[in-house]
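Q: What would this chain look like folded?
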Amino acid sequence: MKLCKTCFSSIWPFVMVTGIAIMSGFVTWLTLGLSQPDPQVQLAVGLIAFVAVEATLIHYVVSCMRRHCRHHAPGNDSGHHLSPGA
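A: My prediction, written as structure tokens:
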């Protein structure tokens, strides 16, 4: 996978994705606590939910960043975004 260093210099999309995954894993863990499973099962399912959400959202963010990157567009040798009137 080819990643543009300019587009990936901001860490905020990845911090936000991790926050969303943490919240979804925690809510899953809390919900399972209502049904009284073993603590290991509760923790394992919460961790699986966290990993699934994190992987899905990271894949989504990376694919969107690659799709909308204009730093390597044809005719754009300067490495800057294309201006609307150009």
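Residues 16 and 57 are 10 Å apart (CA to CA).
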